[in-house]
Amino acid sequence: MTLVFLAALTLAGCGVTPQYDKFTVFDPKEQRLRDRTGTFTGKDGITIFGSGNKTAALDQGGGSGGIGVNAYLWRGALETLNFMPLASADPFGGLIITDWYQPASAPNERLKVHVLILDRSLRADAVKVSVFRQARGSRGEWVDEPVDPKTATELEDKILTKARELRIASLEAAG
What we know:
Layout: H1 2-12, H2 28-37, H3 54-59, H4 71-80, E1 86-90, E2 95-98, E3 109-117, E4 127-136, E5 142-145, H5 149-174
Organism: Benzoatithermus flavus
Pfam family, one: DUF3576
Protein name: DUF3576 domain-containing protein
C-alpha cells in the first residue's frame, strides 16, 4: 500500500507545473502605479539624485531623480522654510515637518509647518501647507490657537515662486 502511494506521488510530481502570475501583495491598481513610477529601491538599487538623461528630467518638471515628488517643489519648500528647524523631511513621500519655531519678535508664540507635495509635476495644486500656532497660556503651558488661512496660502505661493525660479535657473543652465 505504501509503495503504491509513493509511486502515485512520484508520478503526480512529473506533471506540468502551472504558470502563475508574479506574486504581489498589492492590489492591481497599486501594482500598476508601482510598475509605472518605480519603487523606493528601483530596479537598479537606490537612486538618490538620479543618473539618467538630464534633459528628460527637466522636461518632466523636475520629477525624476529618485525622489517621489517634484524636485523643484521639494527644494523650493526646503529653501522657503530654511529659517525653521526641521523635524522630518521625507523626499519619497513628499512630506516636510518643521519643529516648533519661536520668532524673536513674539516669544510667547510658536509656529509649526507641514508641507505635503502631492505630485511629480510643477503645478499650483501640487503643494499643500498646514500651519499650526500655539500661544503660551496663563500657567506657562502651550495652547493651540487658530491660524489665519491666508498664512498657509502665502507660504504655498512662496514655495511655488521659489520652485519656478529654481526651474528657470535650471533650464538656463542646461542651455
